[in-house]
Design a protein that fits this description.
With about 160 residues, this protein is mainly α. Helix content is about 50%, strand content about 0%.
Length: about 160
């Protein structure tokens, strides 16, 4: 039986969720099944799924094993002196220009003449039309936008 989850604030929960989503995205990009990835990381498939959901009760060692099995690295970085707000919330734009994100522009066909969306509108558009999204055509910049929107606006959960 898993240990009870420690108390975490929303920012930490969002970071864990983002790490889990990044691990899952890497596993999917490598076309590796959850069972195979879990075996390579020397853990159960259930533990891998808990990691991919960003559950805080999973040990740090298990997270690192999953990262290593998927070819990812982890590093601890001190905040830069004088720089505030380096997390996902600081990187989320106030307005999302449709011209910069081709898949979002394609999904927002129903709003002619609109050139920008708020972060909430952008996340809502991605979630509502996820089945029409060409995930293979997403560039790194648009993937990063989706990750930031999920971490900040979506509170760590992509509702698809």
């Amino acid at each position: 039986m898993p240990a009870p989850a420690p108390r975490t604030d929303h920012a930490i929960a969002a970071r864990l969720g983002a790490i889990g989503q990044r691990l899952r995205a890497q596993r999917k990009a490598l076309r590796i099944s959850a069972a195979t990835a879990a075996e390579a990381a020397q853990m159960s498939r259930v533990t891998l799924h808990r990691i991919e959901r960003g559950e805080p009760s999973v040990t740090m060692g298990a997270y690192l094993n999953a990262m290593a099995a998927l070819g990812l690295e982890f590093d601890v970085v001190a905040p830069q002196a004088g720089v505030r707000g380096t997390g996902p919330a600081a990187q989320t734009p106030q307005h999302v220009p449709l011209a910069d994100y081709p898949q979002l522009r394609r999904l927002a066909w129903h709003a002619p003449g609109v050139t920008e969306l708020t972060p909430q509108e952008a996340l809502d558009t991605y979630e509502r039309n996820w089945r029409h999204l060409d995930r293979a055509a997403l560039d790194d910049r648009e993937r990063a936008l989706i990750d930031r929107l999920v971490a900040t606006v979506g509170k760590g959960k992509l509702l698809v």
